[in-house]
Amino acid sequence: MMKILMSTSMLTSMTFTQMKHPLAMGMMLLLQTTMMCLMSGMMYKSFWFSYILFMIMVGGMLVLFMYMTSLASNEMFSPSNKTIMIALLLVPSLTYLMPSTINNKEMNEHNTMMENEITTTTTVMYNQTMGTMTTLLVLYMLLTLIVVVNIINVSKGPLRHTN
């Protein structure tokens, strides 16, 4: 599974350089983020970090999407045949070039070490003494969000008005 994700990630990275439309670039970036989150979740045996990374990236992508749709012209997006042919040729060759044998003993030791490290990290973050600090931090961020929402004026923003 990791081999497929790695080859697809390499393919999307190469395809990203060929894109010219901003919305297509955003879609490729979102696909790349999804694959990176899946790979990091599989490696660390905990998807919390991946979930947080994905949510932050999607939030940024929403802001970029709003600006691009309000500023970019209404040009049609059509993928070129050259990009499709390159993709069809690169996927099998990348899969063939990636090493297929991994030392299982080293991989098992690495996984055990990562599981212990994740357990230790989560225990330190959410133990009794840090619980109060975590709760205060969450409440502070919620208060900041409410204040920012009340301060902004939607009618004087940089985005185009909708009728």
TrEMBL record:
<dbReference type="GO" id="GO:0008137">
    <property type="term" value="F:NADH dehydrogenase (ubiquinone) activity"/>
</dbReference>
<keyword id="KW-0520">NAD</keyword>
<keyword id="KW-0812">Transmembrane</keyword>
<feature type="transmembrane region" description="Helical">
    <location>
        <begin position="48"/>
        <end position="72"/>
    </location>
</feature>
<dbReference type="InterPro" id="IPR050269">
    <property type="entry name" value="ComplexI_Subunit6"/>
</dbReference>
<keyword id="KW-1278">Translocase</keyword>
<dbReference type="Pfam" id="PF00499">
    <property type="entry name" value="Oxidored_q3"/>
</dbReference>
<keyword id="KW-1133">Transmembrane helix</keyword>
<keyword id="KW-0813">Transport</keyword>
<keyword id="KW-0679">Respiratory chain</keyword>
<feature type="transmembrane region" description="Helical">
    <location>
        <begin position="133"/>
        <end position="152"/>
    </location>
</feature>
<feature type="transmembrane region" description="Helical">
    <location>
        <begin position="84"/>
        <end position="102"/>
    </location>
</feature>
<keyword id="KW-0830">Ubiquinone</keyword>
<dbReference type="GO" id="GO:0031966">
    <property type="term" value="C:mitochondrial membrane"/>
</dbReference>
<dbReference type="InterPro" id="IPR001457">
    <property type="entry name" value="NADH_UbQ/plastoQ_OxRdtase_su6"/>
</dbReference>
<keyword id="KW-0496">Mitochondrion</keyword>
<keyword id="KW-0472">Membrane</keyword>
<keyword id="KW-0249">Electron transport</keyword>
<feature type="transmembrane region" description="Helical">
    <location>
        <begin position="21"/>
        <end position="42"/>
    </location>
</feature>
<comment type="similarity">
    <text>Belongs to the complex I subunit 6 family.</text>
</comment>
<comment type="function">
    <text>Core subunit of the mitochondrial membrane respiratory chain NADH dehydrogenase (Complex I) which catalyzes electron transfer from NADH through the respiratory chain, using ubiquinone as an electron acceptor. Essential for the catalytic activity and assembly of complex I.</text>
</comment>
<protein>
    <recommendedName>
        <fullName>NADH-ubiquinone oxidoreductase chain 6</fullName>
        <ecNumber>7.1.1.2</ecNumber>
    </recommendedName>
</protein>
